[in-house]
Every structure is written in structure tokens, then in C-alpha cells.
């Protein structure tokens, strides 16, 4: 028999925290206790931050980015090159691209990849809106920055086929050795791709 | 240059989530995005649960447990054996003891262990309140259920010395092979303890 030790309030908090990615039942208990202990310094600010996020955060109807305005900061930034759209699977990938600061383009967040086995078809992703953006003109290049997984590549091929009738240039990220990476730890596919795309030193 | 991609609201949420144990900067970003995506099913309930927890959760002034009443459910339960106090380091240890349902006793949460190197002395822990509870009478046994670490054992010895002048019996948890554990993976100290405390089969 599991005795009732704490009120249902903390049990409910633990259950909800356990739904966050990266937290299981045990770490959710630790997180809940940590919050209770750091009431002023963490629990109150986190509650306020969540309230504010609930109140203000929206999904950009143009690109699918998460922001406090729609269209988002990136879509409405006139300094961004609107001729280039980088297609990513998820907002976290958009953030990763932005951290790299490699290009000053706009984005399109698919919200996942095509995955017939999981029942994810084209209509479940933001693919139609991407085609609309391209058809509306002004786009010269679509960079498919999807993950180098089977589902990611399937999605990339599907989008390439859809955009075949347009004037837009469809590109993908280069494969190769990660910067700082050690050959010994790389798979054969990556090494083969790096050899094939070798450049003059 | 790191460009500003999202509003400060989501940045603040990520920073606060990253302070939870078990979440780093990267998993906090994933958790924040997950919350934004699961706005109705997770973000709103979690915000409400935090608000309710902030409103209701208190620390029991008798035993240090986390609950919605002071004294807590355990301290005010007449069916609990008040003659036995189980001393634990943290509320998570109290919960672990309760999950085992091994004993129907009351508790005392120290809030940590003595750790001279980290500047944690007896006055930083709930040790004086434990001595008070014992001196007030009615307690026959104090079970030191602290962790089997150096700091835990130091704390156990310190409390034993403090209670030496009282009538109370001070015990500690048995050392031995964990149930379901494999000898091959156990340290020498545990095997030695298990041999020394062997029982008739």
C-alpha cells in the first residue's frame, strides 16, 4: 500500500513535470522538490515566466517560428534576405541555425518530417504554406536544412518534387566531417560523403 | 553575432527551466518548445499546478516534510507510531521510505548532511528540532536513515553523540546486498558488510 505522504497539489506538479522531455518520474520528483525549496528564487519566477509565455507566445503563421509576434521577428525583419528560405524540421533547428549565424535568411518550420509508419503525411506538416510562399514569388533559393535521417531525406525529396515546376533553386546542407570531429568516431557514410565532396586545400 | 530570434519571454522561460535539476541549457530549450507546442495539454495545466503549489505548499515546522498543511499529513496522523522517528537527509528520501512502506513511523528531515568543506554546520540542518522532539518525550527509537556516504555517516555519528544522554535508542539502516543486486557489480565494502551481517538461511 502506497501511503499518502504529500498533498495532491505536489503529486500533480510532479506528474506534469514528468511530461517534459528529459524528465522522468524520478527527476520530476527532484525538480518539484527543488522548486519547493527555491520558492522565491525559482518557483515564483518560473510561474510568472510561464504565465507570461502563455499570454504572449504565438506561432508565426508565415514560417511556423515561435515568437511573441505574428509575423515573427525574423519574418518581419527587413534586413533579412527574403530571397532565401531555410526549411527546418523544428523550431529547435531554427535556433541552432541562428546560433551558427551562418546566413541571414528567412525560415520555414515544417513541424516534423514525413513518416508514413507514424501516420505523418504532407497535410500534417507546413508544406503547403511553403509552396505558397514560393509561388507568391520573391524566393530564389530554398535550402533544405532537414536532419540527415531517413525521414528527413524523404521529406527533402518530397519538397524538391513539389517545387520542381517553379523557378526556385533547391539546395541541401553539405555532408562531411563535423568541425572538430575525429575520423575514428565517424560512420562510413559520412567519411564517404566527405571524400566525395573533398575540396582543394 | 547572436541574432535575436525569439522574444525575451521564451528566453527567460528557458533560463529558468535550465535551473531545474536534470535539465541543462539544451534540454531546457527542448522543454520550452515542448511546452509551447503542448500549450493546452501541458503548459496551461503546469502553470496552474505551479500557481496552486505556490499558494498551498508549506514546509512542516515539526519534521521538515513538504505538504499542504503544517503540521504535515504524517505528523498529524494518529495512526502513525510516534515512538519511532526516521531521520532522513531530504524529502526525497522520506518519499523513498514511504514508497517502500516498510514501517509506519514518523519522520525528521535534516535538509542535508554536515559538510565542513561546504560550510554546512549543525545550525544549517534541522538537528536542534530533532533533539527537541526527542527531549519532549514519547520517542523510543531514532532510526538514522541517512545515505551511506561519508557526509551521511558523519552526520549520523554527530546525531548519535547528541542523543547519547537521552533514553532513546539510536539505530541505523542495515548494510548489505541490494535485493535483486548482483555480487559482481557490488563494491568490496558492501560485500564485506553483507558477510559480517550474514543471517541463517
UniProtKB/TrEMBL annotation, chains A, B:
Domain of life: Bacteria
Pfam families associated with the record: RecR_C, RecR_HhH, RecR_ZnF, Toprim_4
PROSITE patterns documented for this protein: RECR, TOPRIM
CDD domains: TOPRIM_recR
GO molecular function: DNA binding; zinc ion binding
Assigned keywords, A-Z: DNA damage, DNA recombination, DNA repair, Metal-binding, Zinc, Zinc-finger
GO terms for biological process, alphabetical: DNA recombination; DNA repair
Domain Toprim, residue spans: 83-178
Keyword Metal-binding applies: yes
Matching InterPro entries: DNA_Rcmb_RecR, Rcmb_RecR, Rcmb_RecR_Znf, TOPRIM_dom, TOPRIM_RecR
Renumbered zinc finger spans (C4-type): 60-75
Family statement drawn from the similarity comment of this UniProt entry: Belongs to the RecR family.
Listed NCBIfam families: recR
Role noted for this protein: May play a role in DNA repair. It seems to be involved in an RecBC-independent recombinational process of DNA repair. It may act with RecF and RecO.
Name of this protein: Recombination protein RecR
